[in-house]
Design a protein that fits this description.
338 residues; alpha+beta; two-stranded antiparallel sheet; 12 helices; elongated
Length: 338
Amino acid sequence: MGLLLILPLLVSGYLVCLNDKFVFSRLHRYEGQLLYFLAAYHGLKCFGAAFFVVTAASWLSAGVSFNLCLPVVKDSFTISLDFLEALAGVVVSVDHTLANKAQIFSFFILVGCVTCLMPYVFSFISYRIYIFKFFFRKGAYEELLGKEAQGAKRLTRAQKARARGILEGRFGNFLARDSNKHHPIASVLVQSLANAVPVMVTMEDRKVYIGVVTEIGSMSEISSGLENFGISPTLSGYRDKDTLKVAFTYEYPGKKGDKDDIEPSVTYLKLESIASITLYDEGLRSRILETASLVASSGDIVAPSIQVQDVVTDESFKSVITALKVWMVAKINRKRRG
């Protein structure tokens, strides 16, 4: 009897971990006893649902039967819907010593079989709930279809179907982002992949890449999809071993006009080899230079000059911030005197 309960419970928990994409994407976080208890937890949910389904079906079908009369045959057939009683008869025919407990054994046999089917039901329901929640919130179609949905008062079936297709295509990015919330570096990589945002990646060997993440690996039971990833770089360089200044040594060819003269290259890197990562803003340097020029033109202080080079130095940033502090203090003192 215990085997009829424990074995389907563990098997169903294992099937949930494999078939439910939301659970599978986080499976690499669990090891040893944690993995065992995760499978047992989902198995208990499947067992509870199966117990309820079999109990309700047995109660509704108990003693229900009807007569079936076929035109070819003169006699009528009595068909009983009491499947629990029929299965109990099969159990008694196999072992006559179980005559008093035949219905109990039949009940738990059915519960065990249905328990092994519940993982597929749960995985289907969890995905449909995700789709429902996404489209239930305001602005969902505008986010997927853009301007096409913004001006339309009512969307057609074709537009809704296209929106669902786009969402299914982005489902992998959602899983990657959801499963790597605990890993800040991986979260930045997923953000770059989902939104085509450039990032600056510094490796442990001081190699620097600036580009957009274009590819990630496939998830497995023991690893996430971001252990190895592909980046399409626009710039690359290195950090000086003494000053840690960033020097860009190579600019990758990009698109020219409407056609690609050269296919964009993809460089594959390891997540564990990343020393630091940040979202890259092309206008950051220009904004700092603009701020420095405004401070210098105010007449209160003379800001240090910064030249636009291929090397970004920490001393330049510190000098600008120091100049801003001095300018703000001088302005506050003038107001107090006035």
